[in-house]
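Follow-up to my earlier ticket, as requested here are the two runs.
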Amino acid sequence: MDGFQILPDLNELHRHARAIFHHALTSVDPRPATSEAIGNLFICTPSIYSIAIGKAATRMALGLEDALGDKLSAGVIVSTSLHQSIRWQSFTGGHPLPNESSLAAANAAFTLLDRANNEQATVIFLISGGGSAMIEWPISDDISLDDL
């Protein structure tokens, strides 16, 4: 076979590459990771609230809901897409720049925190990358959204 090269089966290489890629994505999925981490907690307050912020907020929120079920009272999700749920208020915050929804999300989060504080409830924060622009609250009324 001198001078001949055996070429690999490209279809087989493609299948292997897809399997490796799929495994890598499922290994870093925030939903099961959050569910597993929360499943190990013992929470003794009657009410549990959550604020999920960032590009992975929806997947983390779903993982929290998987772990807590009906124990989760309510939450606020601020992400790059809306999530429809009875328990969660969902906002599409601006990224990389804040938008009106970023301000509305902060208002909803503060309202939820006041409610949790009044009930002496547990609050679980779920934070991933991108959250700093998705939820904003200026320190003064003199600061506009354009200033932010």
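Run two:
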Amino acid sequence: MIEFTAGSGLEESRGAVLAVPVLDDRTWGPGADLAATAVGEALDAQFDRLDFSGKLGEVALLQGAARSAYDTYAFVGLGDEADSETVRQAAGWLARAVSRLEAVATTFHLVDVEGA
């Protein structure tokens, strides 16, 4: 069973994984700018290597730079137009990608969609 708990703000948090939403054409969702900064300058090259563009169903797990707040950053595609169903589906793909971990921080709850 998945358990949800509220945590502190991203700037104060640390952990194993931070999962952030990305829309199509690598348009940042909430928290993705912070994650991109933590991964570093090679982010675009890593996305190119993984063929990650933010399409619905894509998940890119990338290591944070030295001394970043999280060990791994999960960029999760929401497609070209996010709604409550695409956010739900993306959360499922994320869950499968990080299923071995006990806790994952995310900003999915900050995506502005009707009916969420």
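The only thing I checked on run two: The chain has a mean pLDDT of 86. Let me know what else you need.
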